[in-house]
Amino acid sequence: MHMKNVNVTIIVPESLKRKMKKFREVNWSEVARRAFEEEIARIEKKIAAEEIDRLREESMVEWSGEREIRKWRDLS
After folding, report:
1. Residue 61: burial class (beta carbons within 10 Å; 0-12, 13-18, 19+)
2. How far is it, in rounded angstroms, from Cα 10 to Cα 29?
3. Tens digits of per-residue pLDDT, 13-66?
4. Coil, helix or strand for 73?
5. DSSP 8-state secondary structure symbol assigned to residue 20
6. Of 15, 17, 14, nearest to 28 (Cα)?
């Protein structure tokens, strides 16, 4: 499946742009794309963790990881 690429414009300080020009061999679009992907993944993980916490708080079942581990160890 081929993904269509689109242009995105970002604004950077002039001093940063001058520094970037010194390294023309760097694919700055790829650097930005990876940074966007990493930030999205970080946000998605944070949202998922918050949702898990919310579900855990709403749950009527009291669960303890420590108790669960001890239970399984005792069964061995």
Report:
1. exposed
2. 10
3. 999 999 999 999 999 999 999 999 999 999 999 999 999 988 888 877 777 889
4. helix
5. H
6. 17
